Amino acid sequence: MLKKSLRFWILTLLCLTMFGLLSSTLLVSYIVTKENAINHTMEINRVYSEKLAQITDQSFESMKESLSLRAIDMVPLLNDEEGLTTALYHYLRSSNYFNSIAVINEEAKILTSAPALDVIGFHVHSIGITEALQKKETLISDLYDGVVGQKILLISSPLQDHEGNYYGLLAGVIYLQDHNIIETVLGEHFSQDGSYVYVVDQHGSIIYHADRNRIGEVVSENPVVKKLMNGESGAMKVTNTKEIDMLAGYTHIPSSNWGIVSQTPYEVIMEPVLGTIKKMMFYSIPFVLLTFLLARMFANRIAYPLQQLAMQTFELKENNNTVNETKIPTWYFEAERLNHTFKAYIQNQESQLQSATKEALTDPLTGLANRRALIKTLQALQEQMHFSIILIDIDHFKTVNDTLGHKTGDETLVFFAEAMQRITREKDVCGRFGGEEFMIILPETGTQDAIDVAKRLKDFLQDTISPAGRVITFSAGIGFYCDSYEGEIDQFLNLVDAALYKAKDQGRNQYKTA
């Protein structure tokens, strides 16, 4: 199976790294942005609910104070029905606190109201009026169903003269399902993003809600409402009674035991968070692409030297330790060291190969070409040109070894080799064919030229004393090879060898032509 390249793995690692970094960055950004948005929204709602609680508390304190002052003015008019009614209408128009206002005597009988109601003259025993008549003090009732079919809050103040005589109460009524002072104070949530405000009493009943149909609904199981009923204030994420996730800020009002909740749907804050992450992804795409292109360029530069070294190694194996040298850019340390080591290895292999080749083709004693090298040379010349050879055998060499020893014999062989090299040309090949046999290959040379070389060698030896202490002679066979010769090199050598033995048989110290 074809292995993947280093460039592939570098780019794969790069893509995984970039994907991991981008994913982790986006994930961390999402988590941090979401947490910040949640905390920020809950804190805004907490502060907003706290502010609304202060305003609401101040408004109801103002209502109670205003009602108490009006109650003092109403006592002298209790026996003047027309004047009492006029005073009620005047107060109703000037205060805008209440939806209606009524004077009720100590027997729970409605004396008059503004606006006029069909229940004037009737005795009313509702929860709020009964409580007010019993306590004989300024108070705010719990939410209850009024005689006119509305869910109402009753704010009442006792009717007493300066001597402390009690005559009943002045009652301000807020119709919770109509436009009222609470709605005016709380109004629409400032965010206008689906956030809203609602108010619950100490029993968990909704006093105010943007959806008027929910007024009077008991939501005491809501975790936020439970905290308000316990007198706590704060902020939290909550799933409301409608199974909707909300981010709520809540504030308890100690004076009335009410609670105000300002809350925002969780999905509302998630939309900008997801939008922010999408923008981050969109804006990061050009930088990711640019980074990838730059990294790809560097990956190519990093991988190229190693790729070239790998290809040269493969080529070295396929081509029997020979390789075409290619310039490899080594701009970083590891590639430079590998390239240096590879070149050193190639040089060493070439040196060893040359040494082995030389040893395989060189006679170790004389340094001349050996029999194998001579045969290879002849085969090469056979295809290219005509040539001559001189096959030589030293006369009576065995007696040198027998009488003077092998060391002298070896010295004599070296002496003879040097003599051959002296009298031949640079392009001629001198070699030891075996034992005391030698050969001279004369490229582009005819028979007569070969004879002249043999004569020069003979003359040189006659004038020189060898290591054996005497003049040595030789017998030789001379052959000429040209393109008209139809036989093989082995046959040609046999003919020359036969000429050599003919020279030996006829008395030695001579040469014969094949």
From TrEMBL:
One of its GO terms (cellular component) is plasma membrane. Residues 385-514 form the GGDEF domain. It comes from the Bacteria. GO terms for molecular function: diguanylate cyclase activity. The keyword Membrane applies. It is a multi-pass membrane protein. Keywords: Cell membrane, Membrane, Transmembrane, Transmembrane helix. SUPFAM superfamilies: Nucleotide cyclase, Sensory domain-like. The chain crosses the membrane at residues 280-299. The keyword Glycosyltransferase does not apply. This is GGDEFmembrane protein, putative diguanylate cyclase. It comes from Alkalihalophilus pseudofirmus (strain ATCC BAA-2126 / JCM 17055 / OF4) (Bacillus pseudofirmus).
